[in-house]
Amino acid sequence: MSKTSAMRAAFAGLLFAIALPIGAATGGALQQSDVDISNKASLQRGAQVFFNYCASCHSAQYMRYSRLIPDLNLTEEQVQQNLNFLRDPLDATQPLKIGELIRPSMSKAQGERWFGKAPPDLTLTARYKHGGADWIYTFLKSYYLDPTRPSGWNNSLFLNTAMPNPLWEYQGTQLPIVKTHKDAAGTSHSEITGFKSAVGGTLSEADYDGMARDVATFMEYLAEPAALQREKYGVWVMLYLLLLCGVTYLLKNEYWKDVH
User: Fold this and answer.
1) How far apart are CA 231 and CA 165, in angstroms?
2) Any alpha helices (H) in the chain, and if so which ranges?
3) CA–centroid distance for 142 within its chain
């Protein structure tokens, strides 16, 4: 084996070793969310759910309310009335100014007292979680009843999460299907292989899947708003580069025709 081949093999092995714990942290296979951040209707629905059920506890401190206006095709009035529920600290009769960063109504101290830890910021969740939007989508579908937990809830993707299911009224409640097996040493291991419905929610399974997808779509956008412009202009950049390659090739032939 050449030195270069050995270095490539070693690097590939390192990447594989790093990927193993990351994959194991997901708690199982992720479901495909099929998000599309260019779908404005899905972004708007996802934003509505996010601000009504997530933003009271979690911040999105790297995003401003004003950014939602052009990206989601909303007016300032729509954002202030339907998404911004905080009051201006200088005038409690007015909503928080449109240019402010998105922060929760619950304080850090309250979060620590009620949940044992302050809820994390959600701006970049779709970027740092392995699987991105698929992780968020699967997480929202993996809650189950667990009487051993203080909140009464657990999540098969993120075990022992401190947060109860924020969308339980829509999804309903479900119980885990647990499979137990023994390894070669005779030690028993249990794993959750699925769920069975306990009490139905206000939405059908398909409609709840759509709600989870909309939230994942919005959070995918939240993690990188510039992706909307990047993807739009990316096509034109590629066409420009192809045109430039063609012109460069013709120019090369012109310069070298006399040499040959």
Assistant:
1) 33
2) 3-24, 40-53, 65-71, 76-82, 108-115, 125-128, 133-140, 168-171, 205-223, 227-256
3) 14
Q: 122 exposed, middle or buried (CB, 10 Å; 0-12, 13-18, 19+)?
A: buried
Position 190 in a domain: no
CA pair distance 103, 221, nearest whole angstrom:
17
Residue 87: CB atoms within 10 A of its CB come to: 13
CB-based contact 37:43 (threshold 8 Å):
yes
Q: Identify the helix (H) or strand (E) that includes residue 95.
A: strand 91-95
Rounded Cα distance between 212 and 214, Å, is 5
Cα–Cα distance measured from residue 191 to residue 86, given in angstroms and rounded to the nearest whole number: 42
Supply the CATH number for residue 64's domain.
Answer: 1.10.760.10
Q: Which domain holds residue 64?
A: 31-142+206-247
Which residue has better confidence, 87 or 217?
217
Backbone torsions φ then ψ of 235, nearest 5 degrees: -65, -45
* Within a domain: 24: no
Name residue 168's amino acid.
Answer: W
How many structural domains compose the chain?
1
In tens, the pLDDT along 197-242 reads: 999 999 999 999 999 999 999 999 999 999 878 877 888 888 899 9
Report CA Rg, the chain. Answer: 24
Give domain status of residue 64, yes or no: yes
Cβ-count burial of 216 within 10 angstroms (0-12 exposed, 13-18 middle, 19+ buried)? Answer: buried
Per the domain annotation, does 161 fall within a domain?
no
Please report where in the chains the tokens 């304080």 appear, as a residue. 107
Q: How far is CA 149 from the centre of its chain?
A: 25
Alpha-carbon distance of 53 to 60, in angstroms, equals: 13
